[in-house]
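=== Structure Prediction Worksheet ===
Name of assembly: unnamed complex
Input type: mixed (protein and possibly other molecules)
Chain count: two
Listed entries:
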Amino acid sequence: MTEELILLDPTAETEAVKRERIAPPAALDGLTVGLLDIGKARGNVFLDQLEEGMAARGIKVRRYAKPTNTKVAPIGVAQAIAMECDVVVEALSD
Amino acid sequence: MQQISDGFIIVAKRDCPTCTLLEPVYDALAKEVPSLAVCSQDDPTFPDSIGDVIDDRDLEQSYHLNIETVPTLIRMEGGRETGRVIGWHQQEWREFTGINGLGEGLPDYRPGCGSMSVDPGMAEVLAVRFGDTNVTSRRIEIASLEDDIEACFERGWSDGLPVVPPTEVRVLRMLSGTTRAPDEAIGCVPPNLAGCTVEKVAINAVMAGCKPEYLPVVLAAVEAALMPEFCMHGMLCTTHFVGPMVIVNGPIAKAIGMNSGENALGQGNRANGTIGRALQLVIRNIGGGIPGGIDRATLGNPGKYTYCFAEDETDPHWAPLAVERGAPSGGSAVTLYGGEGLLGSFDQLSRTPESLTRSLAMSLRAIGHPKKANAHDALIIMSPEHFRTYREAGWSKARTLEAFEEALLLPGHELVRGAGGVAEGMPEHLAEQTLSKFRPGGLNIVRAGGIAGMMSAIVGGWAATGERGSEMVTKEIGT
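=== Predicted Assembly ===
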């Protein structure tokens, strides 16, 4: 082995933490559902219909929105969803 | 390594005429002083008069003794150096050793030669050889029969073109291009928001093919890309064409040989080519922004390999882009712009700024879509022959931009959905309004190109601009 054949790792040398997904609830009865509009065009149309359908079934719904689809959700929005909801639906449409 | 705690040490090489001239001196010293060690850098049989020469062909003694010139005579006492003389100066050697008559008959003075341990490029080789670097990245062994360039491909480190394998020696040489410490944090690179240090940038700059003197520009480009208003994360994720374009202003562009002239946006200039590529490799390798992963661009553009040039600052009539954006005059800075591919705009007949502005505005109207307004940004890369028209008319850049704004006020009825038999367009309620093609500050001009050619380039921006997307950003280049 020569020194030229030792290379330095150009990556961040990180490993993704593998986390098990939480099992989805069997039913939404009694749960609060967050609906997150990521800011893409007409995502609100899809979420409006979801909200309408859920409300008709008596499911509690809360609405959230990212200021723009080009950036990750502000921490405050993510924390509010985590604190106030049991499940969340993100809408992507274009 | 043999440790010499007490006595005299001579470091010499046969290839040095002064060292060979002093053979009688070595012989005399060996007889007169209690302890003498002679280290030979190039030939363990030299000096012939010394029986047990220390073979220093690997330069370990020379490196650890910090030898710059041979011969060097060092005195050690209790494990500590208590003095040294460099080259040959008869009186000095006599006083230093306490031996009167040493070197009788030899010339009074000879300067000696450079130590092999300070040959060009040797400092980094020896630092690596003797484990004396402060580089902390993981070492990856490549099997002796494995091709090192192929190994880089296989590990996913390449943008699709071969990269320079980042050996420790190459990385140390790259780090010599900056005064910043290798462990200095640069920021978190999207999309993984992975921590990035000067060292990691240097590794990727090696892979891109940069020279060490480019590193401050690469570092500034990375820092600019990480400014929140540039929105590198979103630019990676979008299906749009865009990628970061790097524009370099100031004296460093000339110092490192960047191209702002003929073919400035094309191939053939190492600094232009590799600085832009290094930024992309940082995003790929550190941030994890990989095509097919989070980068799902519909088509992308060739500039996502590299998109970097210097502004032509030879004519002071217009301020350089970075100065216009607040960077100190006379300094060096990078400006990053989220750009798609370029659109050539060809006008050989306009001889007034009014005509040329209207002419270029016709091409600008096509950015994003001819029926879109206040959506995409644009950058005009103005050639010298087009610039001449504005300069000779005495137009400032501000006045020129105002003229473009006026020329790009568009009647809403031409832009609304359905107009011209095209479904795409602005919402119908805007039909009676006059719409600006670009948002305030959304059109910029930079100068580059060869002296011949009445054509300029227009580079469209991302569909998401301003606070809802990407802003052009400028960052001063440090050392």
